[in-house]
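Hey, can you fold this?
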Amino acid sequence: MAEIVWSETALSDLDAIADYIALDKPSAAKELVQRVFAHVDQLQDQPKSGSIPPELKKTKYRQVVEPPCRVFYRYDGHCVYILYVMRSERLLRKHMLAKRDK
């Protein structure tokens, strides 16, 4: 079973997305956060189940998608490191992940 490790910046990303949604519908923001955490928790048992982001061919990064979010992570054989959460309509740039993966 893999350990899930959330970076502070990834938690801040998710919080910012939820805050924006909560402006119109607080209950939807709460449900989104619960869905994202539930989806990420599944990585404990199947850490390689996420897809490779289409913008990044041949990469060590993977993603899980819980609309409207994409959650990017890296698995090192023991831990799943959650690095970045972004809105799904945005395009990912490799440098966005690389600067958070230290």
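Oh, and this one too while you're at it.
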Amino acid sequence: MEALYTDDQIFIPIISDYGFKATFGNEANTLFLRRALQALIKSEVTIKEVKFDKNTFEGITQDGRSGIFDLACTDENDNQFIVEMQYGDAPYFVQRMKFYALHKFNAMVKRGKFDYGTLTKIYCVAILANNILPYDDFHTLANLRNEKAELFDDQMTFVTVELDKFTLQEADCQTDLQKLIYTMKTIHTVTQPTQFPKFWDEEWLKVAIDELDSRKMTPDEKASLEILIARNAESVKAEGRKIKEAEQRVKTDMVRKALSKGFDIETTADLADVSVDFVKSVQQQLSAN
């Protein structure tokens, strides 16, 4: 799924750095964020207010996370929310979610004297353009459960949305969650107001959509957007290069091991899922060394 903004688009994608910060990270008006969080965690309880936290992960997770945007906030009941969005590949994303949630948990525990029974809930939300889980559903809620799938503890909840799995059409969107994901997938493709679904008139979605309207941006905001676009494009390319280089190293190691065990070139190519020419090039390197 393409998340980058182009000049011919009226609306900036929510699944872009700028779009994410303008909607989920809108500190001036948190209506969209509050309603979106309520939908994402499938709660019937209205979130009345949220307070943005300083990004406690800054400096800890700066590991070339290109294409990943995050925020942390707390509601009026001191429940903790971590929201991550990624439009590129997401290797080990579940592990990263656990790291974030446990980091929050440890921070809560270290505040001083406390009663374990009074610990507030932690919701770790991941919104991804691509698929990472072996399930058909686009929305997954996960808690700690026993071998019978019975709830063991719900103090931590992991929420995953895989946008690529969402296939509902406008007329099929009835819940806030469905309306939210539909908007995230389609807002940047709309070119005429006549294409607006009726539910985009709902105030919480209007707040977000107005922030994404490039026609309402000041020259400074447009300049800021162009800078972010350039940075995101370059970071995605850099991350792609890293992934390809890593894959190349793994395949090279597989070829070397297969050749060292006496496998012929054709068999080695099949085992490593590479071309015969690739195997020959590795063989030449081994001979040269």
